[in-house]
Amino acid sequence: MIGNLQCVVLDCPAPLELAQFYQSLLGGTVNQPDPRWSLDDDWATLHTGSGLVLAFQRVDDYRPPQWPDPARPQQFHLDIGVEDLDRAQRQVLALGATLLDAGDGTRGWRVYADPVGHPFCLVRDLTGPADAVT
């Protein structure tokens, strides 16, 4: 082993605003003091209750992914387990997400974009309730 994953970093035009979007979706603490990162206008973090850390880095000429266009690929995505897809969809849309693919109604997941275009999926969580969507 060479190292441990510390966080997932997302490029974006406005780090604090995107951190707050994901905080509303996942819970946790925005810009929690942490000696691993220096927080400023170009960098924000979200420490989630599960221990996962997301970081948000300002990119001046940010170009969002265009799902599913391979010329501007998604670069990464998050799968977020939810108890009720319909309720979770209403909540993420109210936060500023965009529905990209609702599927045909028979599968257990849907694709969205966060406010700056990063794709993420809401996935029916069959293991139990998810605190993030209650």
Automatic annotation (TrEMBL):
UniProt keyword annotations, A-Z: Dioxygenase, Oxidoreductase
What would be an example GO MF term here?
dioxygenase activity
Extract the InterPro entries matched here: Glyas_Bleomycin-R_OHBP_Dase, Glyoxalase_6, VOC_core
* UniProt domain VOC: residue ranges: 4-125
A Pfam family name for this chain? Glyoxalase_6
Q: Which residues form the signal peptide?
A: none
Question: What's the protein here called?
Answer: Glyoxalase
- Which organism's genome codes for this protein? Carbonactinospora thermoautotrophica
